[in-house]
Specification:
Layout lengths: L4 H10 L8 E4 L2 E2 L5 E2 L10 E4 L13 E7 L13 E17 L4 E8 L7 E3 L13 E9 L22 H4 L4 H8 L4 E9 L1
Parallel strand pairs: 3-10
Antiparallel strand pairs: 1-2, 1-4, 4-7, 5-6, 5-9, 6-7, 6-8, 9-10
GO molecular function: peptidase inhibitor activity; phospholipid binding
Protein name: Phosphatidylethanolamine-binding protein PEBP
Length: about 200
C-alpha cells in the first residue's frame, strides 16, 4: 500500500488552519471552501494555483514550487483499490502576479511556470473522470517548496515524444510520500481539494 500520510495530515490541517489552504481556480470557479463539488465537465481546464492568503513566512522572490494532484477514491470511494491515482505533477512554479482586494486587504498570489525552465511538467494534468455510477471522488492538490537544484527533467518520462506524458500504469496506487522523499521535497506547504463525478 503506498504511503500518503503527509497528504492526509495536511488535509486535516486545512480544516482548522486557513493559512494552509492552497488557492485553486479551475476555469472560472475558485475552490472555496475546500471540498467544493465541481461537475467533471467543468473541471477540465488546467488549474490555476495560488499561494495561501496570509502564507507565513511569505515566499522568497526566488522561491519555486511543485504542485501534485491526486485522486484518492479510484475507482470507487467505497472500494479505492486503484487509488491513489496521480493526476498531475508540475514543477518550476514561480510567483507570477499578485492582486489585492483593498476592501478586505486580501492578496492573491498566482503561480506560473518559470520562463526559461524545462517546462517542469513531470506528469500532465488529467481532468477528473470517475466511472459511471461512482460517488464523487476527492481530488487533492498539494504544494511543496521546490528545493534548490531540483531538476524536473530527471523525473519526466524519457521516451521520445513522451516528455511529461506519464503512462496510466505508473499513476495507479501512487505513493506521494515516497516520491517526495526521493525528489528531496520537504513538507507539504499547502493543500486544497474538490470533489467531482
Amino acid at each position: 500500500m503506498p504511503s500518503n500520510k503527509n497528504a492526509q495530515a495536511i488535509m486535516a490541517a486545512i480544516a482548522t488552519d486557513p493559512s494552509k489552504i492552497l488557492g485553486l481556480v479551475i476555469g472560472d470557479c475558485a475552490i472555496e471552501p475546500p471540498g467544493l463539488f465541481m461537475p467533471r465537465g467543468e473541471a477540465k481546464p488546467l488549474p490555476q494555483i495560488r499561494l495561501p492568503v496570509g502564507m507565513s513566512p511569505p515566499p522568497a522572490p526566488s522561491a519555486r514550487y511543485v504542485v501534485v494532484c491526486m485522486d484518492f477514491d479510484a475507482p470507487y470511494p467505497a472500494l479505492p483499490c486503484f487509488g491513489p491515482v496521480l493526476h498531475w505533477i508540475q514543477a518550476d512554479l514561480v510567483v507570477a502576479s499578485s492582486s489585492s482586494d483593498d476592501a478586505a486587504g486580501v492578496v492573491a498570489t498566482t503561480l506560473e511556470v518559470a520562463d526559461g525552465s524545462s517546462g517542469g511538467r513531470i506528469a500532465e494534468y488529467l481532468s477528473p473522470n470517475p466511472p459511471p455510477g461512482s460517488a464523487p471522488h476527492r481530488y487533492g492538490f498539494y504544494l511543496y517548496e521546490q528545493p534548490e537544484g531540483f531538476d524536473a527533467t530527471q523525473w519526466m518520462a524519457r521516451a521520445p515524444g513522451r516528455q511529461g506524458k506519464m503512462g496510466n500504469c505508473k499513476r495507479i496506487r501512487y505513493g506521494l510520500d515516497g516520491w517526495a522523499r526521493k525528489a528531496g521535497l520537504g513538507a507539504i506547504v499547502a493543500a486544497n481539494y474538490f470533489t467531482s463525478n
